[in-house]
Amino acid sequence: MLQQQESPIPRLGVGEEGVVGRHVFGEVWGVNDKLLQDDEYLKNLVIKAAEVANMHLVDVKVWRFGGGDKGGVSVIALVLESHIAIHTWPAYNYATIDVYTCGEHSRPWDAYDYIIKQLNPKTFTKTIVDRSSK
Predict the structure, then answer these.
(1) What letters, b where the CB count within 10 A reaches 16 and e where it falls short, cover 109-131?
(2) According to the UniProt entry, which residues carry Pyruvic acid (Ser)?
(3) Among residues 82, 105, 106, 133, which one is catalytic?
(4) Catalytic residue from among 23, 102, 106, 132
(5) Active-site annotation holds for 82
(6) For the segment 50-90, what is each residue's pLDDT rounded down to a tens digit?
(7) Strands 72-79 and 127-130
(8) Is 87 noted as a catalytic residue in this protein?
(9) Active-site annotation holds for 7
(10) Which of 23, 87, 106, 132 is catalytic?
């Protein structure tokens, strides 16, 4: 039978015993649609968020999806520690944000908070999950 365990957040001090995984993700509503369509702005936002969170950037890719007023942008930053992703739906003033890191030295919540501050949504969610192996 599958057992659910309570998990302290953030979980520190596990480095030598196993994988330290920290996952921060959520959604934003009420963001300026022009920001959510601006792939260069979003790319630079993710780069700066990685820096703020003490992550080591490997590469950033940007994709535009759809067309017209319903087209969105996806930005994925590969960082040595894992990834940062933003997916936008400008027609709905909506986006999702995902920051996942492995290791004890990075601070994914700082990256998430930086992105939120820069996007300035009317409302947002923030979920922090400990994804450590022990």
Answers:
(1) bbbbbbbbeebebeebeeeeebe
(2) 82
(3) 82
(4) 102
(5) yes
(6) 999 999 999 999 999 887 666 899 999 999 999 999 999 99
(7) unpaired
(8) yes
(9) no
(10) 87
